[in-house]
Structures are given as structure tokens and as C-alpha cells.
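Lab notes, practical 5.
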Amino acid sequence: MELKTFKNKKISFKYPVTWEKEQPDTFNNPDCIATLSKGDENLLNVVMFPTHANLEEFKLKMEDMITDDGGVLMESDLVSRAGKDAIKVVAEMSTPDIVFEIYTYVFIYLNNIYIFELRTVNPRNDLLDEYDALINSFEIL
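Output from the prediction step:
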């Protein structure tokens, strides 16, 4: 699989050339540092912001935010990815127009939080394998 590299002053990760780098929506989400898409049904946002929370505290907060928004938690675990401790959350969300799944990884390092959130209406195995490879290539610079 041919890969491209996203890199800024804080992080880097590799992603397949079949994904398109988009302009991050910093108007609606000023903490967004990267946006990637694959077709019309898959959108990945990467956000970063300061935090004093640890993974356990933020995991509970994420679970509450998802369920408060009417989402259904399918998975919520503390895992190891890219050689780092992380939170992995999978949930089903819905709006009046669409039902989609979110696949989220959260890393906390030196009082900064890094969130990778993939939203998809069609969670195929190949898409999720590419997303996992992207997550496993994540580096904090």
C-alpha cells in the first residue's frame, strides 16, 4: 500500500494515498489540526488541545458525551497503539438524516490530548484496517 505522510510541528502519521487530505474545519473546531476523507462516506478529524485529564478520566467523559448526544457505545477500552496508551471508543450515532459509526482513538501526552475520530456510514474491514495502520504510525514530535 502506497502511503503519504501528514506532519506538522506536533505530530506525524502515515495514511494511504487513497485518502484525501482536506482543509481542516478550524472555523467550527479551532482545535482541528488535520482532516482526511475517503470518498463521501468517511471523514477523519484529528484534534489536539491542552488537558489536565488522564486517560481514565477522559474515557468516562467521552462515554458521557456520546450517550448524552444519543449515541450507543459499542466499545470503550484502554488499549495500546503506536507504542502509547490510548482510549479506543466505537459508537453508533444518528441524526435525523443519517446513521453513522465513529471510531475514536485518544492519546494524552505531556498535558496535550490527541483525538483521531473516523466517522463512517460504511465501516468495511479494509477501511478499518487502513485506519488502524494510520493510528499505529502516529508519532508525537
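Observations recorded by the TA: The longest helix spans residues 55-68. The CA atoms of residues 74 and 91 lie 5 Å apart.
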